[in-house]
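We modelled the chain as a single entity of 137 amino acids. Its sequence is:
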Amino acid sequence: VLEGTATELATGLINGNNLRAIRRHCAELTQAARSGDIDDYLRKNHDFKFSIYRHCGNEQMIFLIETVWMQVGPFLRNLRIGFEDDLAGILGIDYHEEVVAAIEVQDGERARAAIVRDIDEGATHILKQIKFPELRH
């Protein structure tokens, strides 16, 4: 909800150099996946998303997103599970280019939907792949 809303709010406010920076971050993120470097991919994922969020005009929302990222961040390393031999496979659950395309035409609803889909599919992938220890009562 937070990231989708921040993306939608930012969409109408992003232009010129900011849009070029977002496109560059998107390309760098794709390249990091193709190079197979999960650490670089996670850094570029952060750079890409926050290059959008910081334009939403709501510092409290950005603070909340950062707080959630600090809690979820350690689990994001598990995105690599299932893609060990080819991290580029992660691009199949990556909707960053769709986010950029929506921002380019200032379609906030579409940008929101793409960022939410990106997050949802990443979370679904992690939950399918990760093995949690069984709880004993």
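As a brief sanity check on the tokenised model: Helices lie at 2-11, 16-35, 38-53, 59-76, 96-104, 108-129. The chain has a mean pLDDT of 90.
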